[in-house]
Give the backbone structure.
Amino acid sequence: MKGFMKNFMSAVFKVPLTVFLGVALSSCGVMALAQSKPATATAKPVLVTYGSTGPLTQDSTSGPAVWVDTHAKTFVVGVVWLYQDNTCRLYPGQQGISAIRAPLHGKVFFTQENLTNPPGSWCAGHTYLYWVARYTWTDADETTLEDPVTLQSTDVYQGYTSTDNYSFAAMFAHIVADPVAASGSNAQGTQQDVANSNLIDPPQGAARYTWTMTGGAGILAFSNGAPSMTTTTSTAPVVSLNGASDTINVSVTVSYPAGSNSLSYGPTPYTYCPKPTITSISPNVWFAGQTYNNVTITGTGFTTTSAATTSCPATKVLTPLTTPSRAVIALGTATVNSPTQITIATVAPPASETTEGVTVSVSGEASPQPNADVLETPSITWTSDPDGSNPVIAGPHTTSPNPPAVVGQQILLTTTPTAATLAALPVQLSFSTNPPQNPWNVTGTAVGGYPTVPSMSIFSGSISLTPLSSTCRSSSTCTLYWVSGTSPTVRYNYTLTSGQTSPTVSATFDVQGPSAIALTTPTISPVTIGLYTGYLYMGMFVPPDTPGIVFNATLQQPTAAQGTIVFVQYINQYNYQWTTSGGCPSQSDGPGIDTGYPFDESSVGATTSSTNDSPAIPLYSNATAAQASFNATMYLMWQPSLPATPVIPVPLGSITWQWSGDAEQNGGTWSFAQQPASPTASIFQPSASYPPDGNVLAISTTVPCGLHF
Amino acid sequence: MRLMSKCVLLLPMFGLCFAALPLASQQPTISIESKDLTVASGQPIYIHIVLKNTTDRQFTVVRSVGGARGEQNYLINVIDTHGGPTARTEYGKAREKHPEVNGSRSMKTLAPGQDVDEYVELTQMFDTSEPGTYILQVSRPSPLDPAIILKSNTLTITVLPAETK
């Protein structure tokens, strides 16, 4: 400011006995300067400019900036001539002020106005008739920043003419709206779209900005929720109260710290186009190869066709919808139903699509993020095939249709997409843990597991079948063993927690198993009392070397794999009782697996095998009678031999047989109390049924009731 | 004398000691072997027993069913590191007291040259948890003449401390 005053003085005192007085105004205050010239007279020039950043430079074409507006014929400069004799008298003469360089974008108005010199100025408190030049921007083009003007003051006195030129640039601020709305909130804290209304090139030194809005009632407001607000910066956020667009006029009055004057701008037409925002898409999970009708986009700030204007065109769904893997998802016609809803007629991801997130976006949306998932058609991989190639057996990338397998061979299947893949998607997904239906559907006969027949060790505990429903119920793996069926099929789909179910893929296996299966009982001995390994027994045998029942099995091995015949006997019930003088309760074994698993590990032929059983009850010397009733089922099974591949035996069929006897002792001699019935055995019943679950019945090592030989 | 008395204990049903019996000609033979000649204490020891018909006659024997249960048909003698009989497990004691079988069993008819094998889980019958050397032998009455006791070769099993093998 000191620099300005110094320079200004050098300009003013070329005018003899002339006083420039500028009044204005709040930002710059009043500057009063005085110096004598010529010797016969004194003058007290005072000049005050409004909003100047530098001196009014005499005879200059590039003057300082003086902010003007479109409303008030902004005061620029006022001049008056006074004697510089401290009498505060007007200097006589013909004075005036004119524009020798007219403005291009505005007009300069000249008036004579009574102005009172402000405190601190020359002759403070005195009122004079000033020659005043005021500038008003009149050009419709509000983007122009400045308008150079040159004023000339003239004083004619006693035939002597004195002129001075003062150049300056009329600076113009203008209102510009943000072209794109940004996220923000209104005064009530509600998240709203916000578009700033900015006063570009605001007057220097401005203290506050008072914004007003006309139009847009109930639709648009400033961020305080009202049609007017005061800010300390040159920006006023405008929000949409209901997500709709509207055209308004925005004005702003700029005030200065200490003065009453102000500059006003506008009204400026202002079309608010809310920023569209997508909040949800339904459905937002699309399976490859499927077509989804009427996919609904919900959001805010959508512009319908009927509400569209040149400034705010109708919202469009951006197409083509290209995925990160550069697949193109076909989208049908999109209709903007309301400011909050868009409907896409069809969404049809290609069948070859992989699993990935995609981004559906609309025109004008800021920073759209992935908001939908496309899921590949599921695939099934056989991860336990014997050759280790892990072929894909179902799905769009199948490498091994109709894979070969044998009954009893473990089939471990894995699927895609995996749970991890789904969890990593932009719209995180997960498999339903309680699907309405099992993701797996297996035709033919298959089980989830069964104990592998050991080669030697004693198998203790229980023998139980693992049902397929417990090993093929998750959406990631399935372990199964075919029991029978030549062309069984595995079908798979998965269900998401949302309830959406994927397309179904299937694989048909070429399963082989034994053929020409036969199990016969060529020997069925009667119930006998006789010596057996040195002890007396009653049982189903004929001493010394005829077994009670002989089982002969024959079959043909499948070409795909060799295997062994396995016998497993299940005791349905074995009831027995000894009669002693002190009484002996009845005993019972079964139901359960007879003695061991398998029944006879020595009978492991490939195409033929035989085993036999000669069940008997010891006839103790201190017992007076013994009764026995035995009922068992011999299961014929076959277990494949596949190196490095888990296998289980598969049932081929069974024979149920039984015997009973009732013996008594008289004087040390045992005989039948009644003639026993002939043991019976059913014919072979081909079946894929496993023995009932049960424990392996242990050999009794205790003898009840003090019995002994 | 010590061995003699031990044999009597092991063969109560026959009242005989295999060490004292002469071998008869034209009798089947018994051989035993094991993959578990050196094991860590606590590990199961399986003995493979083979009865071979080395005669010119066919005969039938009883074979156990349900796995390694050869103890139903063979007597097992185990001498421990100290030269004494090896302690039996509870199961071993019960089997010794009641060798009879109530229930299923299998018969095998062996033509000349044929054999039948069985397994015994030694550790189910005897307490071999103490590291050291165990010498075992199995025997059974001859199928052709129960008065003749057939005995196998001897087999030495070395049991190592549990942490080494």
